[in-house]
Write a structure and sequence with these properties.
By secondary structure, the chain is of the alpha/beta class. The chain has a domain at 9-78 and 123-151: Ribonuclease H-like superfamily/Ribonuclease H (Nucleotidyltransferase, domain 5). The chain has 4 helices and 7 strands, in the order βββαβαββαβα. The protein has helices at 50-63, 78-93, 110-122, 137-151; strands at residues 9-17, 22-32, 38-48, 70-75, 97-100, 103-106, 124-129. Strands 3-2-1-4-7 form a 5-stranded mixed sheet, sandwiched between helices. A hairpin with a 2-residue loop joins strand 5 (97-100) and strand 6 (103-106). Helix 1 runs parallel beside helix 3. It is globular, with a radius of gyration of 16 Å.
């Protein structure tokens, strides 16, 4: 039995909104484990949802990786985690639709989920849920950056 290669990159993400919907921000920290190099990024928009910002942060983070790598994603977003690990295969099978009151309706944030789907085919991503606002240093930093990113839209 061969062992899978080690995790090379840690990706920490968070999204935040003032109102839901309302002005929102996303943020990420990328850490390249072999070198210890680390980078931060964030952005925002005037009208969005918290779930959309959580998802945007992951897409932004994975999009910054220049080659295919093993990534551990740390997020407090159950929406992103369950979407990646449980819901996406069903959505794809149903033409990117989800069940709502016994009928199929389009998936919310479809273009971001489709971008994430492409990125998940390029990278090997392990999802790890962290508790939000619990003293996790990288999650707290991402939250701080995401809130800062939407402040200019208030």
């Amino acid at each position: 039995m061969t062992e899978s290669p080690p995790i090379e990159v840690e990706l920490y993400t968070d999204g935040a909104c003032s109102g839901n919907p309302g002005p929102g921000g996303w943020a990420l920290i990328l850490r390249h484990l072999p070198t210890g190099n680390e980078s931060e990024a964030s952005g925002g928009t005037d009208e969005t949802t918290n779930n959309r910002m959580e998802l945007q942060a992951v897409v932004e983070g994975l999009s910054r990786l220049k080659r295919s790598v093993r990534v551990e994603l740390f997020t407090d977003s159950v929406y992103v985690g369950k979407g990646m690990t449980e819901w996406m295969p069903k959505w794809k099978k149903n033409g990117w639709k989800r069940k709502e009151k016994s009928k199929l309706v389009p998936v919310k944030n479809l273009e971001l989920w489709q971008q994430l789907d492409v990125l998940l085919q390029k990278h090997s991503v392990k999802y790890t849920r962290v508790a939000g606002h619990s003293g996790h240093p990288e999650n707290d930093r991402c939250d701080e950056l995401a809130v800062e990113a939407y402040q200019k839209y208030l």
